[in-house]
Design goal:
- This protein is mainly alpha-helical and 369 residues long.
- Helix 5 packs across helix 10, helix 11 runs antiparallel to helix 12 and helix 15 packs antiparallel against helix 16.
- The longest helix is centred in the first third of the chain and has 35 residues.
- It starts with a helix and ends with a helix.
């Protein structure tokens, strides 16, 4: 009997069938009900227009009637290949706008980042009196209408404006800001007697522009727009840095002071690593905004002189709404979108914390032991 009892297989009580729904199911339904309005709004007013614009970029629609009828010619990727491979005015204008925007981004993003951090350090100083006034004064240009400020700067940088009047008091003949199409590099070379470009730089170059055109530097008209943008955007980024600086533990700064660290060493080895996420955010937002510059160009120059202030965003607008080539205009906007995404990923790759994977590895090994 005992042997039979031992040989008998052990039977486990059958589990009751798992009921669907219950508390978790109700939570899922409730969650979808809460996010459903946002999904509908985003789908109707963001995703659907993007898909419609993508279809327009594949057609030769001229703005007459609906772009979703059979009468609109379908050209496929021709609007995109025309920007990169086909010789013509479309490629030259697009590459000129890319060149202008590269110089614009290379100057604006570092300058506004450094200026915003410097202003944040100033207004975060415990010994500073009137912090509220200075914070409001530095932030005020960011909340002012960009169109209004662009009009003011247009008068300031006019040929007989306040900037040239001030330069005249210093004995300097002010330039013709929105009439001179030469780049800053060309102006500097002209000052030392180099008025004609070398033959090696004019024989050829990538994407329909000569090397002399690529190395021209920003025009003085673009420099005035850069000054405007840096002045109006630094206040917003200053607030971001100010919030990050106020979250830095005071104990770390005091401990580094007791260890004999100088002010620069405390800033470099304590403050900067603590505000690194904010720096990445500022650089990302600055990069995206710099490639989307439009209103300042529209008000101040409209791409002139000689298209030296032309940007991809303004070129997309001009191609679609002035030349009535909506397909090419939409294609330019999607190429600009891909450029922003690619550069953002590259920037994230460069600025990512290289010690983070190592810390995760140590954390896993510590948990395993």
């Amino acid at each position: 009997m005992a042997t039979d009892a031992l040989a008998a297989p052990a039977t486990t009580p059958a589990r009751p069938p798992r009921r669907r729904g219950g508390i978790r199911g109700n939570e899922n339904v409730t969650g979808w009900l809460f996010v459903a309005p946002v999904i509908v709004i985003v789908g109707l007013f963001v995703l659907l227009p993007i898909l419609m614009a993508l279809w327009v970029s594949l057609t030769d629609w001229n703005g007459q009637g609906s772009p979703f009828t059979a009468k609109v010619p379908f050209v496929g990727a021709d609007n995109y290949t025309r920007l990169f491979t086909e010789e013509g005015l479309a490629r030259r204008d697009f590459m000129t706008s890319i060149r202008n925007n590269i110089y614009y981004v290379a100057i604006v993003v570092p300058t506004q980042t450094v200026l915003a951090l410097g202003l944040a350090l100033v207004v975060n100083n415990r010994m500073l009196k009137g912090k509220g006034f200075f914070r409001s004064a530095f932030y005020f240009p960011s909340v002012t209408s960009s169109v209004a400020i662009s009009v003011v700067f247009l008068f300031l940088f006019a040929n007989s404006g306040a900037v040239n009047q001030l330069l005249g008091l210093l004995g300097v003949d002010g330039p013709q800001w929105f009439s001179d199409a030469r780049g800053v590099l060309h102006l500097l070379l002209g000052a030392v007697g180099v008025d004609s470009p070398p033959v090696a730089l004019t024989d050829g170059g990538p994407f329909g522009l000569t090397w002399w055109d690529w190395l021209a530097g920003p025009s003085i008209g673009m420099v005035s727009i850069i000054c405007l943008v840096v002045w109006t955007t630094s206040g917003t980024f200053m607030l971001m840095y100010l919030a990050a600086l106020q979250n830095v533990p005071v104990a770390l700064d005091e401990a580094s002071t007791l260890d004999g660290a100088t002010r620069w060493q405390r800033f470099r080895h304590v403050t900067l690593p603590m505000i690194k996420p904010t720096t990445f955010l500022v650089l990302t937002l600055g990069l995206i905004g710099s490639w989307q510059v439009f209103d300042q160009v529209y008000v101040m120059s409209q791409g002139e002189p000689a298209k030296t202030t032309l940007t991809p965003a303004y070129l997309s607008y001009r191609t679609a709404f002035r030349d009535f080539d909506y397909g090419s205009g939409a294609a330019i906007s999607f190429v600009l979108f891909l450029i922003i995404i690619l550069l953002t990923l590259v920037q994230r790759r460069i600025t990512v914390d290289r010690d983070e994977p190592r810390r995760r590895w140590w954390r896993r090994t510590g948990e395993g032991s």
